[in-house]
Every structure is written in structure tokens, then in C-alpha cells.
């Protein structure tokens, strides 16, 4: 059972997550030779204040 975890900034719409879940599920099922029902996609929305890159918080760019 493949599990795909997607971490991204908060703010994506429900429709965007639906489309992404469908596309990821389809790709994993085809490439890993499994079924869509066995594929799990977990979205983990991260606030910009909790994400840093290069020593700088993403929220500092706002």
C-alpha cells in the first residue's frame, strides 16, 4: 500500500487538492503496479511561519 505525503504551504483550495490527489494516485497506481484504492495521499498544510529554507522563514517574504 503506497502512502504519499505532500507537504506544502497552506492556501490550496479543496478543488486543487482533489486534482492533485487524483493525479498522484493515478501516477502511483500506474508506475507502482498497484490500485488506486490501495494508494493513500496525505496532505500536510504547513504555515509559512513554520517553514524555513536557507535559514530564513518563508513568512519573512510576505
What would your notes on this structure say?
The chain is an alpha+beta fold and 62 residues long. The protein has a single domain (3-61), classed as Macrophage Migration Inhibitory Factor, CATH 3.30.429.10. The chain contains 1 helix and 4 strands; from the N terminus they run E-H-E-E-E. The protein has one helix at 14-32; strands spanning 3-9, 40-46, 52-53, 56-57. The strands form 2 sheets. It has a two-stranded parallel sheet. Helix 1 links the parallel strand 1 (3-9) and strand 2 (40-46). The radius of gyration is 15 Å and the shape is elongated. 3% of the residues are buried.
Q: Distance between termini? A: 39 Å
Q: Give the amount of beta strand, in percent.
A: 25-35%
- Name the strands of the widest sheet in spatial order: 1-2
Number of domains: 1
What pattern of helices and strands is seen along the backbone? EHEEE
Number of helices, where a helix is a run of at least 4 consecutive DSSP H or I residues: 1
Provide mean pLDDT, rounded.
96
Within CATH, the superfamily carries the name Macrophage Migration Inhibitory Factor
Helical proportion, percent range: 25-40%
The biggest sheet, with number of strands, parallel, antiparallel or mixed sense and barrel status, is: 2 strands, parallel
List the helices and strands and how they pair.
Elements: E1 3-9, H1 14-32, E2 40-46, E3 52-53, E4 56-57
Parallel strand pairs: 1-2
Antiparallel strand pairs: 3-4
Amino acid at each position: 500500500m503506497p502512502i504519499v505525503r505532500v507537504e506544502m504551504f497552506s492556501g490550496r483550495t479543496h478543488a486543487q487538492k482533489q486534482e492533485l490527489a487524483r493525479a498522484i494516485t493515478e501516477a502511483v497506481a500506474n508506475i507502482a503496479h498497484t490500485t488506486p484504492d490501495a494508494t493513500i495521499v496525505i496532505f500536510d498544510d504547513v504555515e509559512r511561519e513554520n517553514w524555513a529554507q536557507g535559514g530564513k522563514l518563508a513568512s519573512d517574504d510576505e
